Amino acid sequence: MILILSLLGxxxxxxxxxxxxxxxxxxxxxxxxxxxxxxxLAALAITHxxxxxxxxxxGTLLAMGCRILPPLVVCLWLALNRSAHQGQVFAGFLIVxxxxxxxxxxxxxxxxxxxxxxxxxxx
Length: 123
Prior knowledge:
Layout: H1 2-21, H2 25-52, H3 56-80, H4 87-118
């Protein structure tokens, strides 16, 4: 829930800039937020699952790949597609949305793994 609220806050704070830039900037902002929220939630789910099984490092590494792959694929597509309009605006919003998502998701993952480590082992 914290991740969703953080990204919603980013989107609302960036909305005046998107309106000022004009064109399809609002759509680019919403698309950038959408590209980042789903992998962020999936990464948290992966971290939670692997922390519960006692493999937090494997979960963290798998979550990292899950988190970064969709934004990188979108950026690669933008770089290769010269006819994509508003690609620079979208890429800018995507980078900032990714950083917000990364910071919140990392904070939540570290807190989750730390709480799992404090639990007594199952006998």
